[in-house]
Amino acid sequence: MRNDLILDPWHIGQKSNQWGDDFAETIFFLGNGRMGCRGYVPFESERRPVHQGLFLAGIFGEIKPGITDFVNLPTPVCDEILVNGLTTSLTNEINKILNIRDSILTMEFTLNHDIHVKTERFFSSADSRFLVQRTSITAPKNYTIQVRTGINEESCNCPVPDDQVKDNHETIQLAKRINFSTGKNCFKAKYLINGTNLEVSEEVSVSTKGFHVAKVCEDAVIVLEGNSVLVDGEYSKLTSEVTTYTYEKLTLISSSRDVHIDSAFPTLWSYEDLLVDHMEFWEKKWEVCDIDEAQVKRTFPDREDTITALRYNILQLVNNCSRLDPTVSIGARGLTHTRYKGCYFWDTDVFMLPFYMATDKEAAKNLCLYRINNLEAARDYAKKMNCLGARFPWMTSFDGSEQCETWDIGCSEIHITADVAYAIDNYCKKYNDKDFYLNFACELYVETARYWFSRYTYDADRKVANLLFCKGPDEYCGITTNNLFTNVMVKHNLTLAINAAKDLKEKNPTLFRKLAITESEITSWEDLKRDIPLPRDPKTGHLTTDDTFHLLEPVDLAEIKPDDSASYHTTCFDRLQRYKVIKQADVLLLMTRLQNLFSEEERLTAWNDFEPLCLHDSTLSFASHALFAIQNNLQDKAIYYFNKALFLDIYDVMKNTGKEGLHMAGMGEIWQAALYMGLLKLKV
Predict the structure, then answer these.
(1) Could you give all domains of the chain from N- to C-terminal order, each with its CATH number?
(2) Going by C-beta distance under 8 Å and a sequence separation of 6 or more, which residues neighbour residue 289?
(3) What are 579-592's pLDDT values in tens digits?
């Protein structure tokens, strides 16, 4: 647990005596959805190329054939200060402040006891091309101040294995400079992304006050000197006791995959104008997204930090979604880290999408279009797995291919295909988007139904269709049969397909014919839906996780879970998958998504059965339990789990925020819990 952050309703601060701090750099992440970077200090005395970088949505590089990583790009948040030709050292605390209302990060500190530095940055939310920085340096008059500002081209990746108990210390540089050009106070660098044809360009321009531009260097650095000012065409020494030097830095970042991005650098630009536009965006955004502060205070009278944490979660949900781009989704850690190789999971479809559906229709639609755009890749994946129709991968990046290297997870966690259909159905119903439904969604429902028809194994003697070799949200269940979550979601998927086929026949006959849907095929989906079993415990008759859960070994959870850190750090996966425990909400998660399918008695029985068995080793679990408890009027439990989930990152509850990044799905899930609790201006 961390407790060194300073919170007020609209700010998060920290005072620290060290340059590098993984936890703080995660918390002080800043972005605009299209791009972002972690909250490190630009003037660090040592470069940390793995930790210092820039992330651009959709930019993945190849680390080995067929496997990609989210590229840690060369970063323009990079500066060096020299005083009288010598390097400087930190002599007081670094004061960091994240302005939640305006999404601006400010840092202040002192070098060499008498040089005060203040720097601020924001990724423009009004114009997603721009990273904007301003730095002021106050120093005695007799000092010669030199600043080297530009791009740190040492940024690299340290790919983390899918196996969570393994570490990797090997690095790989995924962006190589291929072109460079300079101007009077600017330069442009172009980089090729490893194993792809993708190119990323970073164009930097500097405006100064007190400084003058001494030179623009081929190592992507602009040198500024601050010992003189230009008077009547000549430089003269500054005479005031203390002088403040200021430089403003605009970086335009573009890539070859951009469709609607203007890569032309503006002829004239103003820090203040860019700031005003950015702040106007956030003023409008908070009108839609803000919390009900009075209700929060009534619900949590003894926790003033709840206000800050809720707003922080909303800020980061906005800052990690490339709302205008239908070709990308949101990684498990957003733009805050390369964990899980930056891949897209079910996290977006099930846990984050509801936030965007409630606050930003365009963002929600584009997240759905990402799945639609990868339907052909899903068809290819199903064929590769000897199945019909379309199967979505567990982990994917820019091209829709499977990126999971852990065979049991990648091959068996197939519920994601039904999750995608579920998410798109929610969008269509929310906005009554009939064009999207008939032209896009229906095709996806049909193709995923075909996958499910080919994936189940029919037991003629028992007249049931069994889902073999599967894994549900509870990843400690081993490879199992008839996971309840998956089976019910598949039934839902089949219902969507049956209705879609009928609607296409009537309202979009061209697509109906193109898909070659037959009446016998529709009947086969109806039969499959009927014959999919819902597993029950053989002794109690209660709904249970899967067909084998009752066979697992009982264990005292306290023996393997002494605190909130994940138990797999101390107990091997083999043992965990034989214990009668669950990693995260599974049956309970299902009942939060399709509440009406289950009676109140079934829901409360499931809570009594599974809540005591949950290890909460997934960062999703606390929030899902909070949501279930709220939906089912378990008030004390709701408050308990809500607090666990809400402060997961801010207080580093599971001790992995620094080394893995923000837990975006957990943020989405706790937002849903807050909605049901009436803590938002929006209402259920």
Answers:
(1) 6-258 (2.70.98.40)
(2) 314, 318, 359, 680, 681
(3) 999 999 999 999 99
